[in-house]
Amino acid sequence: MAEKLKLLVTGLNGVVGKALRPALEERYTVSALSRSGVDGLPEDRVFRANVADIDSLRPAFEGVDVVLNLAADGGLSSEAGMAAGWDSMLHNNIIGAYNVLEIAKQAGVSRVILASSGATSNGYELEEPYKSLVSVDDVPIPDSWDMVNEFSEPKPVSLYGVTKLFGEDLGRYYALTTPLSVINLRISSCGPIDKAAPGRSQANWASYRDLRQLTIKIIEAPADLKFDIFWATSDNRKKFRDNTHAKEVLGYAPQDGVG
User: Is 258 a domain residue?
Assistant: First the structure.
């Protein structure tokens, strides 16, 4: 029997980590890195460290095949949401992303998956037709609209979105200049309850089942997939965050959708 892939997850206690955890533990040998520790894993696979402290990370990366970096401030797991303070986001999202990539490179990890965000492109929702697609009001749905794909112009309207764009470009740098494969996963609306809320989620929802499928496909993608960006979005009727690229490159086949 083949040995299971060794997967290190940062931020496993967050909303996305909790959504992914059952599927990841079923398939891989999962270890976790967090400041507060993680329940339910063997003690030798739980590493207490701060992603902003590069030297504290080294022990967790030894012998790891793939790293899934979910650790961040400013997202759904943060008390202040996307209004988290700059100093915290600087340390967790920018310095932390650099530290994870640098230690992964030094440790001989094959692939790092960086959790990016729909916040990289939330500015589209200030404009029509996207404004209507995310409205909580009963407004007419446009007949058609241009999709926003992974390579459309970024439109962050929060510093959180800016930090996630930095992470994407940092990943591009490491993919071009080191042996690392770096894949960015732009996570859409995924909350503590696996259900699309009214308003934005009707367009942007990513079900747990679809997010798990896509994440596994990225973890197991061929080694020659050196760098890419994929939208994690279910097949919602109002969707405009285009998941076509993930379907074509990875064989992503969403099973869920709203509308």
Answer: no
